[in-house]
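ok new one. same drill as before - structure tokens go in, u give me an amino acid for every spot. 190 of them this time. try not to just spam alanines like last time pls lmao
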């Protein structure tokens, strides 16, 4: 890569909940990968994931404001950091089975369902519903949250909404023969 690789840091006074919660999600997911191979390392990853999640959640703020030109104009946080906090909590629940993280997911999911997001991509304004089921990227974690959480609410009708319907919509927007397919495929040349 020929772009600048400058690094930045966050503090309690200059927080960045979206990037910290994303790191917590990655650490929690990694702890699952290592659980059977190296239990000590797995526990260390999980403990650190919890710490980083607490940092993200207890010192809420956008890295937009703390890092400024380091992330904007391109990697601005357009849709807020609640989706990343929920994403982090969902992975922490999967990794730890700690009910508090599941409660966090359930009690906050509605807050990201209804917001409207205006994203500026290469000079074009793109409008997206905050609850967009098909988005998954640096800004929006919706598709990931829905697919991940569907794993454990699948057989529990009272907890399925909005995760399972949204995950179904995502898959139906991707499958080649789906009537609601909305993506285009490359030719897949070798
Ligand atoms: C981050 O900056 C962009 C561009 O100015 C703005 O649209 C967005 O609302 C900001 N996000 C937050 C969470 O402040």
């Amino acid at each position: 890569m020929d772009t600048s690789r400058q690094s930045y840091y966050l503090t309690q006074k200059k927080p960045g909940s979206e990037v910290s919660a994303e790191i917590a999600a990655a650490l929690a997911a990694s702890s699952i990968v290592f659980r059977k191979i190296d239990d000590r390392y797995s526990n260390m990853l999980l403990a650190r994931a919890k710490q980083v999640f607490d940092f993200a959640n207890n010192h809420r703020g956008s890295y937009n404001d703390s890092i400024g030109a380091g992330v904007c104009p391109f990697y601005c946080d357009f849709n807020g950091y609640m989706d990343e906090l929920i994403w982090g909590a969902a992975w922490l629940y999967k990794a730890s089975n700690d009910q508090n993280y599941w409660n966090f997911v359930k009690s906050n999911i509605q807050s990201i369902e209804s917001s409207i997001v205006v994203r500026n991509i290469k000079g074009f304004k793109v409008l997206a519903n905050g609850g967009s089921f098909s988005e998954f990227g640096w800004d929006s974690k919706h598709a990931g949250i829905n697919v991940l959480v569907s794993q454990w609410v699948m057989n529990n009708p009272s907890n399925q909404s909005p995760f399972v319907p949204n995950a179904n919509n995502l898959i139906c927007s991707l499958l080649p023969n789906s009537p609601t397919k909305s993506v285009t495929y490359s030719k897949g040349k070798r």
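Residues 89 and 101 are 5 Å apart (CA to CA). and btw The mean pLDDT is 90.
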